[in-house]
Amino acid sequence: MTDTNPAHFNELETDAALEIMNISVGRACNSLALMTGSEVYLSIPEIAFNYFDSDYLGDMDICSAVSQRFRGDMNGVTMIFFPIDMAQKLMVAFIGSHNTEGIDLEVLERDALLEIGNIILNACIGSMVNLLDCKLNAELPSYHKGDIQQIVRNAGIRGKYTMMLKTHIEISDLDINGHLTMVLDSDSCEKFQALIAAYLQVYLKAKNLN
Fold this sequence. Notes:
CATH architecture: 3-Layer(aba) Sandwich
Distance between the termini: 41 Å
CATH topology: Chemotaxis protein chec
Mean pLDDT: 82
Shape: globular
Number of helices: 5
Largest sheet: 8 strands, antiparallel
Structural class: alpha+beta
């Protein structure tokens, strides 16, 4: 992808954006660790300001995912993806070894992942609200199953030019891997930049006082 970056994020702003997203995603995955009772490891987040390309989000053929749109000072969507077999393992880790006889496992997986996704994605959005001192209202999460392109269409990503963040999640004890992603709508990149600039002003002022 060629980065045309019409929002003109400079190096300092890009580093600050990565740090904020790293903290937000880290706190979200702490919630996942508490739910599963396992260590959760994250890759270093990747961030891109570019024309949207669903290939950037991952190369999983068929996966289960939960998306959650947010609106307010910025509009966008957070998503968490797991390959089908790993989504099922995560469901088992979440609900425990209860008797599932007579229960529709498809419905059980959907309900479990919706609850997991709601906690994780709300934690991510809540951290952004606190760090950037902004207002964001999260909608109810949605469950998806299919390939990345289908899920992206169903998640309702809007506009061609976006901010895309991606981090790889590993729950080593359970041998589960997935991705957590945030995509800003095209009209929110400049709003995000303004919030980053305000964050940097406060940070640099506090640093100078010390």
